[in-house]
Amino acid sequence: MQVVYHDVIIVGSGLAGLRAAVEVAGKHDVAVLSKLHPLRSHSGAAQGGISAALGNAEKDSPEWHAYDTIKGSDYLADQYAVEVMCNDAPRAIIELEHLGVPFSRFEDGRIAQRPFGGHTSNFGKAPVRRTCYAADRTGHVCLHTLYEQSLRKGVSFYDEYQVLDLCMAEGAVNGIVAIEIKTGQLMLFHARAVMFATGGYGKAWRTTSNAFANTGDGLGIALNNGMPLEDMEFVQFHPTGLYRLGILITEAARGEGGILRNGQGERFMERYAPSIKDLAPRDIVSRSIYEEIRQGRGAGPMKDHVLLDLTGLSKEKIVEKLPEIESFAKIYLGVDPAEKPIPVQPTCHYAMGGIPTDANGRVSGDAEGREVPGFWAAGEVACVSVHGANRLGSNSLLDLIVFGRRAGKDINRYLDRICLTPIPLDTGAAARMSEKIAVLKGRDGGEAITPIRAELQNVMMENVSVFRHEQGLSEAVEKITALQKRAEAIRVFDQSEKFNTELLEAIELQHMVNYSKAVAVSALERRETRGAHSRDDYQSRDDASWLKHSICFLEEGGAITHMQKTVDLSLASSRAEFVPKERKY
Ligand SMILES: Cc1cc2nc3c(=O)[nH]c(=O)nc-3n(C[C@H](O)[C@H](O)[C@H](O)COP(=O)(O)OP(=O)(O)OC[C@H]3O[C@@H](n4cnc5c(N)ncnc54)[C@H](O)[C@@H]3O)c2cc1C
């Protein structure tokens, strides 16, 4: 089997992976592997913007930003990490600008900023304009800029290589097994440092804003290697997905003045969040929409959605500030948003949980936080944790840029000081993967992928979405356990070597059932309501028992073990405002 060596291997070419690569390039030999062309990574779909207390539009401060992030997280975020992120944000934006990101501007030439849900001034007093943007294509322009910079700095790219497993030796990560999609050949990549930036995992739900590639491979591989996942129960549903399709209508549409209305034309958010109304955090708006539908006040003949009304904005403003949204609404639903409200419903959007890391991206291998040498993670696959139980809009792009860079810097330090020669490669993982592929393709019986994946997506949508309860979650765990067994015995019908997407989807599905079970088990265990995790049977937050992170491990045979980890309340503890209290907007 072909073995390729690079000092550093980064898996994933979204903004987190590329930001780290730019940091390492020029200092060490770095390669980025991606199962997609880098510019197709989901980061390119980010619309609304990236937060930073620049104060270009009005007075703002990183401390207010940190306050909002911690409050938005329903106090589950690690406060030290939040302060690191919010303090670094203004620098990170200026740096992006200098790298070439064409941000939208105010008349006087400074970077423009817009309001976004949950971002306030003066510790919750009023909405603040904190989100920097480039029309509604912010992720797209950032991704292009960082890709150009990576090429300029000589990063090696392996496009359309799907990573299947990690190589470990002497307790450290020192390589990966990947399949070259074009040829079907397995390859080994040997390295001194490996970083995962494999993105989110919304594809386990039926209605999602996520790209097809967001199948949580990084999480599945971590679980398979005995590593934990943190806070998997916290999955954010964005309030405004296009009706029936889930395609995202950015929160910026409400930031620019859009209003949510029920079937009777009422601005219902006035009832649920009287002060910040349509710009309340996403978990609150999504629950409010479901509440309206439950009470029979939904829109349309089925009364199963609500309406996003942009008709109060001028046509020129929609075209200038929200051009993508205008074309999505026209193309997919035949609605011109300047003339008619857009039918919307909550859509599975963002995963707060992931592979636990510290604020330098180092992966924790156990519930005590002991690091796995040679292994880093950043971006949506990681849980630092800065978003806690609920992420504020425009804080993810910031997380990618800040913690992608910090992971890159930490890798440089590690390579400079600690690790001089690569640990010899153990080829066992590659042999196991080769055998697994032969079994998948060689089986006589066995089911196809599609029905198993569809069942999983239905279970997650029905039982593990916005509202949850004991019975539904127990049923979900039971059903997913059965799906794990069926996924294990899957059959790949396509025998070809080149571009065998059926084989790749089979492996993705095996990851999906495992991390989905971690989501369902953590949701069942957490007997309280916090952030995006809302339990009908435990309706209030229980700080005494649950101001704790969830940690999950995958056992042999597919069982999930669940335990708790302490929340880091250090640094910020001096401020009275950071002490958990009722979250009212
Ligand atoms: C529609 C949409 C709009 C959004 N808008 C905003 C916004 O306005 N502001 C904001 O802050 N956040 C937004 N978010 C969230 C944010 O965009 C994501 O959290 C973020 O882009 C994730 O970036 P990432 O670098 O972690 O991963 P991604 O950009 O998802 O990239 C993942 C990479 O990993 C690679 N990969 C995955 N598995 C494998 C494998 N097995 N082998 C090899 N490569 C692999 C993929 O090829 C890809 O390159 C939005 C999300 C969505 C879905």
UniProtKB/TrEMBL annotation:
Query: What is the free-text note on the cofactor?
Result: Flavinylated by SdhE, about 5% flavinylation occurs in the absence of SdhE.
User: Could you tell me which pathway this protein works in?
Assistant: Carbohydrate metabolism; tricarboxylic acid cycle; fumarate from succinate (bacterial route): step 1/1
In this chain the Fumarate reductase/succinate dehydrogenase flavoprotein-like C-terminal domain maps to 453-585
Q: Which Pfam families match?
A: FAD_binding_2, Succ_DH_flav_C
Q: Name one GO molecular function term.
A: succinate dehydrogenase (quinone) activity
Tele-8alpha-FAD histidine-modified residues are where? Answer: H42
Annotated Gene Ontology cellular components are: plasma membrane
Gene3D superfamilies attached to this UniProt entry: FAD/NAD(P)-binding domain, Fumarate reductase/succinate dehydrogenase flavoprotein-like, C-terminal domain, succinate dehydrogenase protein domain, Succinate dehydrogenase/fumarate reductase flavoprotein, catalytic domain
The record lists substrate as bound by H238, T250, H349, R391
Documented EC number(s): 1.3.5.1
| The entry's keywords | Electron transport, FAD, Flavoprotein, Membrane, Oxidoreductase, Transport, Tricarboxylic acid cycle
Q: Which reaction does it catalyse?
A: a quinone + succinate = fumarate + a quinol
Q: How does it sit in the membrane?
A: Peripheral membrane protein
Q: Where does FAD bind?
A: 12-17, 34-49, 217, 380, 396-397
Q: What residues form the catalytic site here?
A: R282 (proton acceptor)
Which InterPro entries does the record cross-reference, listed alphabetically?
A: FAD-dep_OxRdtase_2_FAD-bd, FAD/NAD-bd_sf, FRD_SDH_FAD_BS, Fum_R/Succ_DH_flav-like_C_sf, Fum_Rdtase/Succ_DH_flav-like_C, SdhA/FrdA/AprA, Succ_DH/fumarate_Rdtase_cat_sf, Succ_DH_flav_su_fwd
The prosthetic group or cofactor this protein requires is: FAD
The UniProt record lists the FAD-dependent oxidoreductase 2 FAD-binding domain at 7-397
In which compartments does the protein localize? Cell inner membrane
Where is it chiefly localized?
A: membrane
The first-level EC class reads oxidoreductase
Q: Family assignment?
A: Belongs to the FAD-dependent oxidoreductase 2 family. FRD/SDH subfamily.
Name-wise, this protein is Succinate dehydrogenase flavoprotein subunit
